[in-house]
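User: Assemble these into one structure.

Assistant: Restating your components, then the assembled model:
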Amino acid sequence: MSPRKPPFRLATPSRRQLLAGAAALSAAAFLPQRALADFPTAQVNTTGLAVTDADVTVGILHSVTGTMAISETGSVEAEKLAIEQINAQGGVLGRKVKFIQEDGASDWPTFAEKAKKLLVNDKVASVMGCWTSASRKAVLPVFEQYNGMLYYPTFYEGLEASKNVIYTGQEATQQIIAGLNWVQKEKNAKTFYLLGSDYIWPRTSNKIARKHIENFLKLKVVGEEYFPLGHTQFNSVINKMKLTKPDVIYAIIVGGSNVAFYKQLKAAGVDLTKQTLMTISVTEDEILGIGGENIVGGYACMKYFESLDNTNNKSFVAAFKKMWGDNIVIGDVTQAAYLGPWLWKLTVEKAGSFDIDKVSGASPGVEFKGAPEGYVRIHENHHLWSKTRVGRARADGQYDLIYETADLMEPDPFPKGYQ
Amino acid sequence: MFGEYSLGELGSILVMQGFAGLILFSVFLLMALGLAIIFGQMGVINMAHGEFMILGAYMTYLCSHLFEAYLPSLYGGYFFAAMIIAFLAAGALGLLVEWALVRRLYARPLDTLLATWGLSLIMQQAFRSTFGAREVGVELPQWMMGSLNVTGSIEVQINGLFVMGLTLLITAAVAVLLFKSKWGLQVRAVVANRTMSGAVGIDTRRIDRLTFGLGCGIAGVAGSAFTMIGSTGPTAGQLYIVDTFLVVVFGGAQSLLGTVASALSISQSQSALEFFLTGSMAKVLTLLMVIGLLMLRPQGLFVLKVRR
């Protein structure tokens, strides 16, 4: 019953296929391999990081135990896949990438402690990690004090930018605004009901959504409500929505509450093929728990769906399933986590150095053409330029791509007029 | 707030809202029954109650897959088999835990709190290692989904009715067991005065074990039923534990009637406040109300006279 472990036969046949997949990626995306001799260790590592002539060590810091293991497992898998593919191509500046994995155990002080261990004891050259905003906020001072580099994968509320962090997920305005514009135009929506779990990400996101709906689209919000994390009874709010009849239900509910919400919505006779519902918190991962039959017809607005039809994504999905099993689904955050090691590699090669300050300084403008979501580029503010997409849930738990923005959306973590 | 709606609309919302409150009442009562038996009758604070529920939920998950693979023709009825299996599995584990752990700690109630909390962590990790860290989706037979159209605008959830029926049945069964059976008489005797019951020949050890097993078994059934409305994951049990303790403590630990009354009052206030205010505010006000009443009646709504 455990799909977590990689199959033991990984060694020969699958690695060859990984190589093939990676080679396909590299043809489109990567700089020609540079030789080790051009980059002597003394020159590329002036600050005493864990870099030798043979290898370079990075850290992976996620929860694999505790509540958040549900969500973070996928990110760990994606990062390990990326590292393996990078090594198959010859590593970074001629050095193999090794990783040290630490468990944040869904506990924010533990995250800070492990981050300090990775930076101070292990001297890792970068860290891929964290998932919740709370864990990121806990490690941020550590990364700034000991000068580390964090690649953070989750879509989040924005209102933050640090020279020590690269945010590979979308910040709130990127994720929200395009979706609202689309739903107004395509569904002729006039009224919205905003729902969320009661913590910073849904509250900030709904605040942005409300400002956009009222001030820019000149439409109406007929209700806005929050529920404690872990809330399992939604019948009252479902009745309220039956009374107010919003054109769009805008839901940012997370965790176990999600499952309860969609099951009860369906049981109450709300048919999502007729009632428009848009969410920014349900990826393919969450649908596993919710059950595709309970959310079929709902719209999700994010930057990546497993079903995206492009060559990068096809080889990524194939390699991912090869490594972690066929039953695995890949959600938005998992894909964003996969970007982390690649962006770090590309930045190091651009900078010609592993030094944190040089990597941080070289990050803006780094582009990754091999990204499964298409093309991404790092902005001055260390977030990514990326497209925003709307998908419609199918009964089998996947999304059909309905719409994508023509241009890359600019990351704007401190949006004017939305605060 | 209601100016713009017609009387008919308001009427049907009122009916549906009343029904939502009743569903919440059933859910609370079902969650709390197992704990009420264990905590109320034995004084054991079972922090692993939520995990026993999730054990039931996972049994349901397994059952749905077994039926799908081997008995597809009976799939529509798998839920009943699943509940029985959930009861037996959770009950058996309860007996084992009582024998291995809890019985050694009867004299030290605060240590049972710590021990069962540790047990809950062990069970969570066991679920995670067995079923994976991600939540699993439990598919329901077709007939349990959707809602009944009573009139044009009034809709009643079928799974809500199911939970209500189940709660009624189990509450009645527990009441009959406690107040009409020989075992119930012995349990009540042990609660009232443990030393005296032992002296008149009641095997208090055996009574304790059965009581604990029964409480855990009911938790398993509750967990099985909640796959209809909630999530099934390694840590989902934590979602229920706070509300469960709230209901039991507020009702007065020793009284079954108290549990019923407390589930009713908490669920009705929660559901009504949620309708008029918001989800978070409803929770805040409900908790304030409970705290206020507990200050006036520290033993809970219904107090039994117990000799300690």
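Residues 30-238 of chain B form one domain.
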